[in-house]
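Sorry to interrupt, but I need a hand with the structure work. Could you write out one complete protein record for me, on any chain you like? Just paste the record in under my message, thanks.

. . .
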Amino acid sequence: MGWASCARAAAALLEIVIASAAHAQLAGHGGPVRALAVSADGNSLLSGSFDTSAIRWSLKFDAASEVLRYHADAVNAVAFLKDGRMITTGTDARIAVWTAGRQQPDQLLEGHTGPVVALAVSPDGSTLASASWDHSVRLWSLADGASRAFEGHAQNVNGVAFAPDGMSLVSVGYDGALCIWRLPEGRPETVALPAPLNTVVIAPDGEIVAGGADGMLRVLTTDGEPAGEVAAGPSPIVALALSDDGVLIAAAGIAGTVAIIERKSRSVLRTLVGPGFAVWSVVFLHDAATLVTGGTDGKIRRWNVHSGEPVDSNSFGTSADPLAAYAGDHGADVFRACVACHTLSAKDAQRAGPTLAGLFGRKIASLPGYRFSDALKTMDIVWTPETVAKLFEVGPNAYTPGTKMPEQRIGSAEDRRALTDFLARATSQ
């Protein structure tokens, strides 16, 4: 059925959804938000998720502008080019270059043999760097797609960044190695650090900051000499971001907190504490006062960097409640856990999951224009009130083995019936 992006459909979850509404700014992904990027003009946000999709969001209207579907597995990294084009890549090892508004990529970059987990665009916008678990870094010409492989890591390469002058590239890996590649020749200088490295950023003055699995930030000079370290937290650092001016660093931890660090003084100014889910991605908006985070719960949140408090979504657009017309309907209340990712009408802009318009009577994985997992395409299920109820009674893993839908169940038969009755009314219009 491709309910790949329903969050947790259970009546009890409604209370959680309502309680966290002030923190959940943008909802549309059905899995952890692994990557974030902000456009050069500051009007758009691009997110990539374990649900295999990327979403371009309007920061003006607080809504999804388009959903990009091409990848067969998790989208691990995203980037904007200066001209507004977008780049996505992931576990399927493919890199896709997109023009806004088009349903298919303009350009495909293939060469990696393992998951691609990080991207960096050169300062002049002509070259893309990619880091992969095939132990290599690749440089790609965005003009013709030609690539060069740089090999120097003994294990997974997790992060990559260009120096401000574009004359060198830095990569970090699980092997604890930080490699400085001098361009254009690509001669590596390797620095061994005492912990596996997950991410790296480079400040406008060339200073290198690497985040480790031991919760430490390690700062190095442009030549790779040690220049300080900061204990960001007790858990592994999985994402880093720099403010445009290079003054602040955001270090996201697997435990769900984000440390805001003043780079020059090497001091933690404050720690942002969310709902407890791992934070997989962080990015500063160009105002340097707002941080955006992506979490395991599939939500994208905004934070005031100076106060450490979440930014009320009401100050960013006026998204209408899509279920306002169903106030008081118990089935709609159960469905509310899914509404962030699925529309009820084919007239509405598509979200991360397929529209449910005309659901009943439709064969699983048959909706045109949506990229379903291969496992669903081989199944012989037709969606009816009974099959939808069964899906949530036993859970997706048991009912649709091989699906990428998060495991979830609705334990109450009354709630399952209320949901299917609601869907019968709301999706037949």
In short: The first strand starts at residue 26 and ends at 27. The chain has two domains: 23-315, 324-426. The mean pLDDT is 86. Residues 413-426 form the longest helix (14 residues).
